[in-house]
């Protein structure tokens, strides 16, 4: 009966190597996409989960024959599933109305599950799960960008001096560029010191649905010609040199 609770050193090393390889494959994709949790992070998470699973199953084998002891191999594994969420939460970032890092946090959680499978000896499940994760990160990511592009929301922040600028003129300039405003919010900033002059500043938050880069550039050019405009900043837009030049500080 106690044979199932023992494992050779060579088998342990094999499982740790397998965890390193599978976790590294997923981490390599995250590293390639320039995410904070990349190659080494995913490897460490997968190895750690495997070690905990090995400990949970085989680390207490000497107590198997004790009459008052009941082994539960899933106890430590359950703590990994809940505890890995804290690590994944560190990869989630909020920038205005957009949230990034959810996919990386999910990949960390999946890598932990793969490590548990490897530690328990479920090589087939771990390998198939790794393939599915890689397909999801590579292929489905491209399909998502192609099919769901129409549902994406673009955010623009415009700062304008309340004494010189006019919200109506900014809205007219945006509509003149061909953009359709999905949502508009305004808030009053405290003060802004510009060239020795201090005055109240209005911050406009404008949301657009599926705007083209050309229309965004045209809108920034039109807004920059208006009196009182302090700065224009576009969020969640693929970075290009031309876009970054437009997002520089604008002087009225």
TrEMBL record:
Per UniProt, the keywords (alphabetical) are:
Cell membrane, Membrane, Transmembrane, Transmembrane helix
The record, for InterPro entries, names: MgtC/SapB/SrpB/YhiD_fam, MgtC_SapB_SrpB_YhiD_N
One family name in Pfam for this protein:
MgtC
- Ranges where the MgtC/SapB/SrpB/YhiD N-terminal domain occurs: 16-145
* Membrane topology per record: Multi-pass membrane protein
Question: Source organism's superkingdom?
Answer: Bacteria
In its UniProt entry, what is this protein called?
Answer: Putative Mg2+ transporter-C (MgtC) family protein
The source organism is Paenibacillus taihuensis
């Amino acid at each position: 009966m106690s044979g199932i609770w023992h494992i050779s050193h060579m088998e342990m090393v094999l499982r740790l190597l397998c965890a390193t390889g599978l976790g590294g494959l997923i981490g390599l994709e995250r590293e390639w996409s320039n995410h904070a949790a990349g190659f080494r992070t995913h490897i460490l998470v997968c190895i750690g989960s495997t070690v905990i699973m090995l400990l949970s199953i085989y680390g207490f084998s000497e107590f198997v024959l004790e009459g008052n002891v009941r082994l539960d191999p899933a106890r430590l594994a359950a703590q990994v599933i809940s505890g890995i969420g804290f690590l994944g939460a560190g990869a989630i970032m909020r920038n205005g109305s957009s949230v990034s890092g959810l996919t990386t946090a999910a990949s960390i959680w999946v890598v932990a599950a793969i490590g548990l499978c490897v530690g328990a000896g479920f090589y087939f499940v771990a390998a198939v799960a790794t393939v599915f994760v890689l397909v999801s990160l590579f292929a489905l990511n491209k399909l998502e960008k192609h099919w769901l592009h129409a549902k994406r929301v673009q955010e623009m922040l415009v700062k304008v001096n309340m004494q010189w600028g006019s919200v109506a003129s900014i809205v007219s300039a945006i509509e003149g560029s061909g953009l359709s405003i999905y949502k508009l919010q305004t808030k009053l900033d405290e003060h802004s010191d510009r060239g020795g002059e201090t005055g109240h500043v209005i911050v406009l938050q404008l949301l657009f649905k599926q705007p083209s880069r050309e229309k965004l550039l045209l809108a920034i050019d039109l807004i920059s010609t208006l009196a009182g405009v302090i700065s224009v900043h576009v969020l969640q837009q693929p970075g290009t040199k031309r876009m970054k030049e437009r997002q520089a500080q604008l002087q009225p």
